[in-house]
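Supplementary Methods S3. Complex input for the 3-isopropylmalic acid-bound model.
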Amino acid sequence: MAETYKIAVIPGDGTGFEVVREGRKVLDAVAARFGFKIEASDFDLGGDRYLRTGEVLPDSAVSELRGFDAIYLGAIGHPDVKPGILEKGILLRLRFELDQYINLRPVKLYPGVDCPLKDKGPEHIDFTVVRENTEDLYFGGGGFLRKGTPQEVATQEMIATRFGVERCLRYAFELARRRDDQKMLTLVAKTNVLTYAHSLWERAFHEIGQADYPDIKRDYNHVDACCMWFVKNPEYYDTIVTPNMFGDIITDLGAMIQGGMGIAAGGNINPTGTSMFEPIGGSAPKYTGKNVINPLAAICAMGMLLEAEAAKTGDDAYARAGRRIEQAVMQVTPKLKSLSAGQMGYTTSEVGDMVCTALT
Ligand code: IPM
Ligand code: MG
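Predicted complex, serialized as structure tokens:
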């Protein structure tokens, strides 16, 4: 059994504190059950610290975070801070500096959860999106010319590197192989318009697939068609791989068809480094401090954190613990009136307790 598992916890902003508290409760419960030790250290990062000190993410915090096995993040975004400062300064900076080049977002409808799609149930909605997490429109290149004048020009650049695309594709092919499903990987892009960057994606997809993953069926969708299929035929999908920006957009749609932000979790993964797991929803200022936010997304993120640790270290106890968390969540979802904040029929901490009870 591995030594103590060290995780950094960043509650962040708003309801981040409340959901992280429940995730930790669940972590303590599985650690006791599966016999591993946890050492959690809190990091005070987010809007309040920024307003108090002017610091967003000190360099020293980045290097400290590198020393942890994983990072558990609540939510980023503060109503008194201009949009972009915290998102770019904390979330995106950590993704880049820790080279978390995969953003893994399962889209799975759990039992008893209301789905906005007519006649679709858990048997129809179960796929995973592998979003590239360090390139594309997110790398931050661009500029202004004649800013503030009527002749202003603004550019925003998109990049795709063979290296960045290839490592993401390989991760996705491996995942499609491990998933006990159709062994199909769908590339979602826009090759009919983005004829340079997405040509690289398409060529790399087929070259790598043909050479190293002949057992995985290669499939392609334009991103607009993909949005249509998410609503019309979500059962079509198994594993999706997509560039950063499209991945951002389609996973919000994915979150809605799996029952909303209350349940949608994601992982920013560096398969050999420090990964970061989070509920994909925001800080929900309106619900902050009321004990009404749904902690299940954060609890599912904790399950993903443990499964990723198992993949990194080969330690099966973490894998079993991660799977156990998901099973417990699936026992709790049918008991909730709704997954929406304030409408669950239970408080945030009661839902956390229900998951802990279901674990044992
Ligand atoms: C997400 C979010 C972030 C993103 C924002 C907050 C920068 O929407 O994690 O999907 O665009 O990646
Ligand atoms: Mg997003």
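Residues 29 and 270 are 26 Å apart (CA to CA). The pocket of magnesium ion (ligand 2) is lined by residues 248, 252 (CB under 6 Å).
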